[in-house]
């Protein structure tokens, strides 16, 4: 296990600053996810940790050793890391055993030691029975586990994963999330994982670092970031959410776009606000505070994904799949809300949405 200490790291390519003042410590045994949209700087940070990039300024420590910063630079092969990339990168002419053994073979380890280490790690990733197969005889998920085993065989202190599941289909991606997390728990290894997939981040992480334009917008547990987002970007990026313009007077928030309907609110904000509501936090209730017309239902089996017209505003409601049997398009419905997130209406949301489109 290893700690990673990042002190004020900035990285620029010419005039393009892709990371700004990244400053954090990843603790021993943590599963850390660097999350964000394409081009936000998350892979650059991973490459700096790996030693494939040098920071423009700042320092990086693995345990107590300075590995990047000033005139000091420790190359990747001396950092005791394992890395798995987006592509499987398994050797097609080698069987599974030899693929996994490769890092130890090039270090000229004794054959008995190599065999013991390879058999141990193949057991961990559930590939022992495939040791003599070649990559073209394996599924995509099995090939990714070969790459994972190869990264683990030399017992690294730190495991770096760069979008390792993006080439897998949806069901396999879901099962591999849990397999990787279980392996990490079993070994107690420190993991830094890069993804743009918020579901992966939520399912696997001890802490998430959500990055946008090179700046960490928020860090914390999945629960903290999901339920207490620091700003509108975080609320929008992680999970499903809709934003509604309102006016807060200390007792209620009135929604002009919903025909003046309102909800109770005694929080600190006053005046014009942006109200973020996750659709799973809206539910149908005969005594609900909001009234609208059910326009469409999208039956997804486990949930009924509904669109309700309230005044001039479309409101999304994710109800139980059983609700599909009791609702019909065009009927009047009432709704209550379990939880809201209220932000100052500073115009930044419109700018953010323009950038995303």
Could you explain how this protein is built, in words?
The protein has 357 residues and is α+β, with helices and mostly antiparallel strands. It has 2 domains: 4-234, P-loop containing nucleotide triphosphate hydrolases (Rossmann fold, 3-Layer(aba) Sandwich), CATH 3.40.50; 241-356, OB fold (Dihydrolipoamide Acetyltransferase, E2P), CATH 2.40.50. It has 9 helices and 21 strands. It has helices at residues 42-50, 96-105, 111-124, 140-152, 170-187, 198-204, 222-227, 232-237, 348-356; strands at residues 4-13, 16-26, 31-35, 57-62, 65-69, 72-73, 81-84, 158-162, 190-195, 207-212, 215-220, 242-248, 252-254, 262-264, 271-277, 282-284, 290-299, 303-310, 313-320, 332-337, 341-344. A 6-stranded mixed β-sheet has the order 7-8-9-3-10-11, sandwiched between helices. A 5-stranded antiparallel β-sheet has the order 2-1-4-5-6, with helices on one face. Helix 2 (96-105) crosses helix 3, helix 2 runs parallel beside helix 4 (140-152) and helix 3 crosses helix 4.
Q: Predict the CATH topology of the largest domain.
A: Rossmann fold
Strand order of the largest sheet: 7-8-9-3-10-11
Radius of gyration: 25 Å
What is the helix/strand order?
Answer: EEEHEEEEHHHEHEHEEHHEEEEEEEEEEH
Total DSSP helices: 9
Tally of strands: 21
In CATH's first tier, which class of the largest domain applies? Alpha Beta
The helix-and-strand class reads: alpha+beta
Give the biggest beta sheet: 6 strands, mixed
Contiguous runs where pLDDT drops below 50 for at least 5 residues:
352-357
CATH superfamily of the largest domain: P-loop containing nucleotide triphosphate hydrolases
Strand content: 35-45%
The CATH architecture of the largest domain comes to 3-Layer(aba) Sandwich
Q: Compute the separation of the termini in Å.
A: 41 Å
């Amino acid at each position: 296990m290893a700690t990673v200490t990042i002190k004020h790291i900035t990285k620029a390519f010419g005039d393009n600053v892709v990371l700004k003042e990244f400053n954090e410590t990843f603790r021993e045994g943590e599963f850390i996810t660097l999350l964000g949209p394409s081009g936000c700087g998350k892979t650059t940070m991973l490459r700096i940790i790996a030693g494939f990039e040098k920071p423009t300024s700042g320092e990086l420590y693995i345990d107590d050793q300075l590995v990047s910063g000033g005139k000091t630079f420790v190359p990747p092969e001396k950092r005791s890391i394992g890395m798995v990339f987006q592509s499987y990168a398994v050797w097609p002419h080698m069987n599974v055993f030899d693929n996994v053994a490769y890092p130890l073979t090039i270090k000229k380890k004794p054959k008995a030691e190599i065999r013991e280490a390879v058999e141990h790690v193949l057991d961990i990733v559930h590939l022992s029975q495939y040791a003599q197969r070649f990559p073209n005889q394996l599924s995509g998920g099995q090939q990714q586990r070969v790459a994972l085993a190869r990264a683990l065989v030399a017992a690294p202190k730190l495991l770096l994963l760069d979008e390792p599941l993006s080439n897998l289909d949806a069901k396999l991606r879901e099962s591999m999330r849990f397999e990787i997390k279980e392996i990490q728990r079993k070994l107690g290894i420190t993991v830094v994982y890069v993804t743009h997939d918020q579901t992966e981040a939520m399912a696997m992480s001890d802490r998430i670092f959500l990055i946008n334009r090179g700046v960490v917008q928020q860090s914390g547990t999945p629960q903290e970031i999901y339920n207490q987002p620091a700003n509108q970007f975080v609320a929008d990026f992680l999970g499903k959410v809709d934003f509604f313009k309102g006016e807060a007077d200390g007792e209620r928030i009135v929604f002009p776009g919903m025909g003046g309907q309102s909800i109770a609110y005694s929080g600190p904000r006053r005046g014009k606000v942006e109200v973020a509501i996750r659709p799973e936090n809206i539910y149908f209730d005969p005594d609900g505070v909001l009234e609208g017309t059910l326009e469409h239902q999208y039956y997804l089996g486990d949930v009924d994904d509904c669109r309700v017209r309230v005044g001039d505003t479309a409101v999304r409601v994710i109800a139980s799949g059983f609700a599909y049997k009791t609702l019909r398009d065009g009927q009047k419905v009432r709704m209550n809300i379990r939880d809201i997130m209220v932000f100052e209406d500073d115009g930044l949301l419109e700018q953010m949405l323009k950038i995303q489109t």
